Fold this sequence. Notes:
Elements: E1 8-17, E2 27-35, E3 39-43, H1 50-57, E4 69-72, E5 75-76, E6 85-88, H2 104-110, H3 117-126, H4 140-152, E7 158-162, H5 170-187, E8 190-194, E9 207-212, E10 215-222, H6 238-258, H7 274-281
Parallel strand pairs: 3-8, 3-9, 6-7, 7-8
Antiparallel strand pairs: 1-2, 1-4, 4-5, 9-10
Helix pairs in contact: 3-4
Domain ABC transporter: 10-238
GO molecular function: ATP binding; ATP hydrolysis activity
Pfam families: ABC_tran
Amino acid sequence: xxxxxxxxxxxxxxxxxxxxxxxxxxxxxxxxxxxxxxxxxxxxxxxxxxxxxxxxxxxxxxxxxxxxxxxxxxxxxxxxxxxxxxxxxxxxxxxxxxxxxxxxxxxxxxxxxxxxxxxxxxxxxxxxxxxxxxxxxxxxxxxxxxxxxxxxxxxxxxxxxxxxxxxxxxxxxxxxxxxxxxxxxxxxxxxxxxxxxxxxxxxxxxxxxxxxxxxxxxxxxxxxxxxxxxxxxxxxxxxxxxxxxxxxxxxxxxxxxxxxxxxxxxxxxxxxxxxxxxxxxxxxxx
Length: 286
């Protein structure tokens, strides 16, 4: 029996999205239903549509389709934006504003850190952030820690994460994941997390999903998975599952390339590109 829509914290139906009218869909008629308190890992190759999906859920891209249904906490994310939704993505660290000469303590206060002092202080300790850092003079990993502190210090109901642990060292990442898991369990909060780093993630998710070329090839499935064959008593690790899924994805894509899809990799054309012809003409290195 299918659960009613209101039982899902994140609920998507008939979602198709293209970045421009002339480009193929980045998301192709997908549906997604996640219960409150779930922690779902999105697995997929680069370009599978994970970031686009997260940005749409965060209300950062507008969908106009009449049949499209994108709800979080029972609210339409475009027409009645729900409160308590936090999106953290990688593009934040490239913003020139957060690379300016501003002290971290002042930066956090400018976004209301004083209103969430208890959670802010827990995160400052957990992420090992120095309040006297200057944002323009710290590393990408340290800047990422500040972003996480800023984004997580206000209690959230739904957390959308797009590769935000990529710059963290393994210790801080492990501490962060334990904090997020405990926070989710204690408050019944929901997490949807797209990542390519699967080490140390086995105990984190309640569900795992697989995207390929803008569609779900595996809908959110309870984790851990059972052993893969009758002779094994050990469940597969998330790393093993992801590696196998991505191998299959690449094989499928290469079959599609044989059928006319634009190919990747080295070009086999015998006629040189115009740019190659031009630069060869003025190449005096030999």
